[in-house]
C-alpha cells in the first residue's frame, strides 16, 4: 500500500470524532424537557384582550443556551449569530422597506436574485467557495486536505451526513491531474442538489376558498415581509388575497401589514393591540369566507420555540381555525432566517411538532454565508422548501430551485 493510499484510508474529522467507518447519523437535538407543548385547551375563543403580560424579554443567550447544539469539537463553527432584533422591544418600530431600499449602503447592487443569492452565500471568509480555493491547489490529495475539507463543510452547516458523503466522494475520486477547488465545488454542488431536489416543491394553492396560509416563526425571521411578498405574488397571479394581522402583540407589525395591504390594494383584518390572536384569526377566516377570497394569509407574532406559553398560544390559533374547517390551515409556512445557522434545526423540529409545518421559506439569503443549514434541514426533516428571500423588496422572493441553490452554495458561478 502506498503512502498515498495509507493517507487516504486514515480517518478524517468526523470519523476521528464519532468513530466508526460510516457516516454517523445527524446529531440529535437536545431533549426538549422544558417545553410543554400542545397543552389541551378546550375552551372556545373568548374575544377578550390578553390580560397577563406575555413574556418577550428574551435574549440571544436564551436561544443559544436552551436550543443550540452543543459545540461538537474544537473545529466546530462559531455559535450562530442571532439577529439583534430578536431581543428588540415589542414596541420597536420597523420601517417597511420600499422595493429597492434593501441593499446595504455602499454595496453595489447585484443584478438578479441569483447573483444576490450567490453574493450572500459567498459573503464572509467561511464561505465554501473561498475556503476550497485556499485548500485545493491542483495537487495530490493529502490527508490534511481531506480533514480541512471536512472542517469546512461542517462549518458551512451542511450536516454531517452530506458532509461525509462529499468527503468520501472527493477521497475516492480519481484525480489524475491533482484535485482543484473547481473539482470539489462540482462534487459539492452535485451532492447538495441531490439532497435538496426532493424538497424543492412549489406552494400549490388548491381546494375550497379561502386557501388559508398560517405564517409562523421566531421573532424577526421575516414573516410579515414574506407575507407582503406572497400577497403581491398571488395578486399578480390574479387571485384575491386577504391578510390577517395576527401579530397582535406588536403594534408596529400590524401597521407594517396594513402598509403592505394598502400598497398591494388588498384588505387587512386587524384588531386592537393585545387582542386575542386566535380570535383575530377566526374573524379573518370568516371574513375571507364571506368575501369569497382565494387566499387568506395569517401573520403571527414572532415566538421563540423554547417559550412554551407562546407555543401554546400558537396551538390555540390552530385549534380555532380548525373549528371552521378541519383541514385548515391548508399550509403552515415556517419562515426561517438563514443567518441563525444551526438554531434553525430546532425551529423546524419544534414548530413542526406544534403546528405541523407544511413548508419552509428561508429568508435573508442575500446577506449570509450560512444558507448551508437548509441542506442539513432537508436531509433530516425532508420538509418542502417553497421559497427563498433574497432581499427586503416586494419582488425579492423566489421559488426554491435546488440546482441554483446548490451551485451557489458551492460557490460556482453558474
Ligand atoms: N436582507 C433581507 N432582509 C429581510 C428579508 N426578509 C425580511 N427581511 C428583513 O428582516 C426584518 C424582519 O422582518 P419582518 O418581516 O418584520 O419579521 P417578522 O418575522 O414579521 O418579525 P416579528 O413580527 O418581530 O416576529 C425586516 O427588517 C425585513 O425587512 C430578506 O429576504 N432579506
UniProtKB/TrEMBL annotation:
UniProt KW NADP keyword: no
Gene3D superfamilies for the chain: P-loop containing nucleotide triphosphate hydrolases, Signal recognition particle SRP54, nucleotide-binding domain
Binding-site positions, GTP: 217-224, 299-303, 363-366
Biased composition (Basic and acidic residues): 1-10, 91-106
Signal peptide positions on this chain: none
UniProt feature, compositional bias: Low complexity: 14-26
Keyword Coiled coil recorded: no
Membrane topology: Peripheral membrane protein
One annotated GO molecular function: GTPase activity
GO cellular component terms listed in the entry, alphabetical order: cytoplasm; plasma membrane
Leading EC class: hydrolase
Start and end residues of each stretch annotated as Disordered: 1-129
EC number(s) given by UniProt: 3.6.5.4
Catalysed transformations (reactions): GTP + H2O = GDP + phosphate + H(+)
Compositional bias (Acidic residues): 65-75
Key words of the record: Cell membrane, Cytoplasm, GTP-binding, Hydrolase, Membrane, Nucleotide-binding, Receptor
One GO BP annotation of this record: SRP-dependent cotranslational protein targeting to membrane
Compartments reported by the entry: Cell inner membrane; Cell membrane; Cytoplasm
Domain SRP54-type proteins GTP-binding stretches: 384-397
Protein's job: Involved in targeting and insertion of nascent membrane proteins into the cytoplasmic membrane. Acts as a receptor for the complex formed by the signal recognition particle (SRP) and the ribosome-nascent chain (RNC). Interaction with SRP-RNC leads to the transfer of the RNC complex to the Sec translocase for insertion into the membrane, the hydrolysis of GTP by both Ffh and FtsY, and the dissociation of the SRP-FtsY complex into the individual components.
Protein family according to the UniProt entry: Belongs to the GTP-binding SRP family. FtsY subfamily.
Subunit field text: Part of the signal recognition particle protein translocation system, which is composed of SRP and FtsY. SRP is a ribonucleoprotein composed of Ffh and a 4.5S RNA molecule.
HAMAP family attached to this UniProt entry: FtsY
Annotated protein name in UniProt: Signal recognition particle receptor FtsY
Species the sequence originates in: Lichenifustis flavocetrariae
Taxonomy of the source species: Bacteria, Pseudomonadati, Pseudomonadota, Alphaproteobacteria, Hyphomicrobiales
Gene it is expressed from: ftsY
